[in-house]
Amino acid sequence: MSILVDKNTRLLVQGITGKEGGYHAKKCMEYGTNVVAGVTPGKGGTLFEGTVPVFNTVEQAVATTKSNASMIFVPPPFAGDAIVEAVDAGLGVVACITEGIPVHDSIKVMRYVRSQTHSRVIGPNCPGVITPGAKCKMGIMPGSIHKPGKIGVVSRSGTLTYEAVGQLTGLGIGQSTCVGIGGDPVNGTTFVDVLKMFRDDKETEGIVLIGEIGGSREQEAAEYIKSELKKPVAALIVGRTAPPGRRMGHAGAIITGKAARADDKIRALSAAGAAIIPTPAHIGRTVKEMMGVKA
After folding, report:
1. What is the predicted pLDDT for the residue at 244?
2. Is 271 in a helix, a strand, or coil?
């Protein structure tokens, strides 16, 4: 068992003929992901890498190839429409990698996404999802650093996701599934959404949560951990030294109120029972201690 993706995932790539979409679609195929279709308007009838059929619309691709998931590499002005097209085609998991989608577009699109129940949207502005045990990734993460294991990883930061994975793999601990939910202020999937899935996943025995300044999603996660989650959680919150009003990396990483500060998030997660990771260099060590893993 895993969350979101597995050996039955039949991936469709929106924007597969573009530079970024093509590069990462090929990397997903090399990792083992079953990429069955691509979509680029005007390029229908061609083949990607000589084997993957390209269609003009998602609806055509799904009808022909039975795709059940999508990875989106569409330029920001059109990415919102690409998400809606994937949802309307009935795809179960949609990971939007695109960075720079206007916030007002995301607000309208996510309102539409939340009005339905058949599709789960990851991102936008995220690295995607990977399940090492199933050799399935739909995203831009380097597959080679991952190792099958029992720790679920959920993060707002792509780079820190890779850092966590590298340390867990280096210690021989590995990962069950890694989910990058993205750093935008408006996105399709929250920490709580992923924690619920990890709670129900038999392959996940512990969780790493990586948050940052901005918003209150980490406090919502803390409330859920305290009231509903029995599995151990190690939490890292970055941006402790960021001054109020200063944007740090992601569009959503800006302190706009007391609850958005790193210290308040750390306090909430600590009170909920999470093991606090003091710095990014201590992710693996903290998880090792939390899980009682012997050297």
Report:
1. 67
2. helix
